[in-house]
Design a protein that fits this description.
Number of strands: 10
CATH architecture: Roll
Distance between the termini: 6 Å
CATH class: Mainly Beta
Number of helices: 5
Bound molecules: flavin mononucleotide
Oligomer: single chain
CATH topology: Pnp Oxidase, Chain A
Order of helices and strands: EHEEEEHEHHEEEHE
Structural class: alpha+beta
Number of domains: 1
Length: 167
Amino acid sequence: MKRIDPKELKPNAIKLISDGWMLITAGTPDNFNTMTASWGALGELWSKPVAFVFIRPQRYTYGFVEQNEMLTLSFFDEKYRDALRFCGSHSGRDTDKIAETGLTPYTTEIGNVAFQEASIVLECHKLYRAEMKADCFLDRTIIERAYPDGDFHTTYVVEIVNAWVKE
Ligand SMILES: Cc1cc2nc3c(=O)[nH]c(=O)nc-3n(C[C@H](O)[C@H](O)[C@H](O)COP(=O)(O)O)c2cc1C
């Protein structure tokens, strides 16, 4: 893969995340988990290139994100849709997502896990976390639609410290 400046990323960021989906992966090479996400954002904050990711507390991945300083975001071509669908509908608590999907994890130079099949990998350092709160919703209809069980996402702002694209 070729390392690029995150500002050189070509795909439209909204389409990339919402239509293409991504795998959020955190942990160590020996003990990591990954899950599919389609809610998120790429942009700038505090003069840094950042991603915003949103993870519900019941996800197994949540604990890995909480316990580690870094995470990776992996984006894939359409042919991996089934693998992402699997990682978004099964929990690593009771499934081996790697064995089931055939995805190939690799370890970055600084020890984070991403996937060889990815077309884009963003390696990210956590900067900020905040739990969404019912009181903060200005549009109250979102609570009924997205959080009928009260499982509000935790928001993470992460700095994109490395970006790679498939050549
Ligand atoms: C297309 C798609 C998008 C998803 N986006 C998110 C998301 O942004 N945040 C989240 O917490 N869960 C999201 N999920 C749900 C998790 O991927 C799913 O619950 C997964 O099984 C969690 O795996 P884990 O328990 O191994 O962490 C999404 C699922 C799919 C299929």
